[in-house]
């Protein structure tokens, strides 16, 4: 979907920080953009987010988790993404379907094909024009942030899970390289932001 850009990365990579800085830059430049996130982004979807990430829900079934992400995505698209795109705005989303592919399909071992089919129902034609991937291994990411956030049910999963997620992203990028802009996130926050803006400029999203 044209003008729909998603931003992905492993936990701890600084994705949310970089997205916030990009939002501030776009607002300063006067771009007609919308920034949102998943899971969440709208009222009902945010309620689902709290259920998904609550560390007290450690017994949640993996397939239940996958369906909750898809449900939040359906509501988020209806409330935020579709209206903004119809108005001609550019939409940036912090996480989208690729997170489900690698976290539930590969990390949880539910199977990539199954999760792709589920999300095909959830999103229809509303796939991103391209995806920015902030590239930093889980080892580096958690070291930089001082360890996993134990109050976040997804971050608290064992480390091998996060390694599988990272390799999953790499496999998706290798399969469809034109659909991704890979950003080296190993440098400073300023360096990563500069690389991010340069990638978006190459794609004609910003100047």
Give the ordered list of helices and strands. Answer: EHEHHEHHEHHEH
Shape: globular
Q: Helix/strand/pairing class, anyone?
A: alpha/beta
How many β strands by DSSP?
A: 5
Share of β-strand residues: 5-15%
Share of helix, binned = 40-55%
Overall residue-averaged pLDDT value = 94
What's the story with the biggest beta sheet?
Answer: 5 strands, parallel
If you compute it from the alpha carbons, what radius of gyration comes out, rounded to the nearest whole angstrom?
16 Å
Which spans of ≥5 residues are poorly predicted at pLDDT below 50?
A: none
Distance between the termini: 20 Å
**Strand order in the sheet with the most strands:** 2-3-1-4-5
Instruction: Give the count of helical stretches.
Output: 8
Question: Your description of this structure?
Answer:
It is a single chain. The chain is of the alpha/beta class and 207 residues long. It is built from 8 helices and 5 strands. The protein has helices at 15-29, 43-53, 62-86, 97-107, 112-123, 138-145, 159-175, 189-202; strands at 4-9, 33-37, 90-94, 130-135, 180-184. It has a 5-stranded parallel β-sheet with strand order 2-3-1-4-5, sandwiched between helices. Helix 1 packs across helix 8 (189-202), helix 2 runs antiparallel to helix 3 (62-86) and helix 4 (97-107) runs antiparallel to helix 5 (112-123). The protein is globular and about 45 Å long. The chain starts with a strand and ends in a 5-residue tail after the last helix. The mean pLDDT is 94.
């Amino acid at each position: 979907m044209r003008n729909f850009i998603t931003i992905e990365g492993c936990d701890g990579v600084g994705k949310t920080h970089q997205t916030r800085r990009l939002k501030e830059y776009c607002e300063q430049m006067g771009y007609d953009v919308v920034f949102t996130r998943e899971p969440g982004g709208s009222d009902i979807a945010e309620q689902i987010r709290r259920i998904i990430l609550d560390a007290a829900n450690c017994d949640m079934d993996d397939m239940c988790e996958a369906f909750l992400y898809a449900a939040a995505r359906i509501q988020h698209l209806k409330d935020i993404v579709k209206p903004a795109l119809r108005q001609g705005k550019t939409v940036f989303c912090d996480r989208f379907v690729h997170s489900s592919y690698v976290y539930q399909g590969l990390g949880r071992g539910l199977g990539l094909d199954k999760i792709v089919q589920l999300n095909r129902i959830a999103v229809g034609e509303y796939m991103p024009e391209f995806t920015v991937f902030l590239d930093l291994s889980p080892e580096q990411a958690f070291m930089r942030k001082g360890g996993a956030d134990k109050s976040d049910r997804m971050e608290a999963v064992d480390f091998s899970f996060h390694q599988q997620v990272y390799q999953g992203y790499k496999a998706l990028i290798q399969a469809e390289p034109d659909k991704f802009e890979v950003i080296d996130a190993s440098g400073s926050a300023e360096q990563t932001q500069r690389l991010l803006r340069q990638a978006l400029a190459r794609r004609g999203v910003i100047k």
